[in-house]
Amino acid sequence: MADRLTNLFPFWLLLIGAIALRWPQIFIGLNQGNLPVLILTLVMLGMGLTLSLDDFQRVSRLPRAVLTGFCAQYLIMPFLGWAIGAALQLPTALAVGLILVGTCPGGTASNLITYIARADVALSVVMTLASTLAAVVMTPLLTQFLAGAYVPVNGWLLFAQTLQVVILPVAIGVALNRWTPRLVRQVLPIAPLLSVVGICLICAATFSANAEAIVQQGRQMLLGVFLLHSLGFALGFGFAKLFGYSQAIARTIAIEVGMQNSGLAIILARQAFPLLPLAAAIGAISGVMHSLVGSFLAVIWRSQAQRQSEAVQPHNSLTM
């Protein structure tokens, strides 16, 4: 049951986003204090619970594919966010929001989309882990470099925030998995669903706080975010094929590049750019958009993989 509800992640995001825009008063209380930060911290803790020391060791056994995906993640998306903002001549808040989304690591939902697409789930998990750990340095540096032309960016503040809501919760989760495995086994079945609920609540809080402005500038925001993620998927796939990877690995890298940790983008925008509330709204729209585009591609790729499998089976049976 929990798995079925988790697989409906794009639907829940669309539903709660629509409710938050129509009746913002329902979720406005979620914007109080550090509640959104706490929610994201718990989401990242849930990610940490799914990891073990063996997962870190697997990085060394998949060096080339992981490195390719890592380079694609931090070369394509940040500069794509900057380029789209410049090309569309977006207002400062929207341009900064796109850049911040682009500089964030791969989202945990990418592992689910990879599974649906019949791509390489193990590689997806390792790539998400690698980009997440590197985000503590890469996200502040790239945001300061690319968004500095729009507004002053405090790189050290972003560094501290990323450390707080990404590295520490993941490390605690890994430690709990190592030292309290029985407790973790009881929590794991519902951990993905709780993460989905957490991201939905963060997005709802952002939508409710900026409902009027989102409605007024919705077209620009939707276009910018759609281009960011659509081109991210396409360029990520092309980047992987350029290095000669198989369809499964290329699809995995495309998903990792095209799907960002939008929850992190929202929290960082709220804290680092408090005078640009629509920068956080870009992150909320990103969470919906990359889930929809990723799900659409996953269904197409899954059907292609199934057709290829069916085409191979009769051939094998004739040669036996």
Question: How many domains make up the 3D coordinates?
Answer: 1
How many strand units? 0
Classify the oligomer. Answer: single chain
Beta-strand content estimate: under 5%
Uncertain regions spanning at least 5 consecutive residues: none
What percent of the residues sit in helical stretches (DSSP H or I)?
over 70%
Q: Write the H/E string, N to C.
A: HHHHHHHHHHHHHHHH
* Inertia-based shape: globular
Mean pLDDT: 87
Pairing-aware structural class of the strands and helices? mainly alpha
Radius of gyration using CA atoms only? 19 Å
**Ends distance:** 40 Å
User: Helix tally?
Assistant: 16
User: Architecture in CATH?
Assistant: Up-down Bundle
Tell me about the largest β-sheet. none
| CATH class (first level) name | Mainly Alpha
What would the CATH topology be? Answer: Na+/H+ antiporter like fold
Provide structural commentary.
- InterPro entries: BilAc:Na_symport/Acr3 (IPR002657), Bilac:Na_transpt (IPR004710), Na+/solute_symporter_sf (IPR038770).
- It holds the Pfam family SBF.
- Keywords: Membrane, Transmembrane, Transmembrane helix.
- It is a multi-pass membrane protein.
- The protein has helices spanning 2-7, 9-22, 35-49, 53-61, 63-87, 92-103, 109-116, 121-147, 155-179, 181-187, 191-209, 211-216, 218-242, 247-258, 262-272, 277-319.
- The protein has 320 residues and is mainly alpha-helical.
- The chain has one domain (2-308): Na+/H+ antiporter like fold.
- The longest helix has 43 residues, at 277-319.
- The radius of gyration is 19 Å and the shape is globular.
- The termini are far apart.
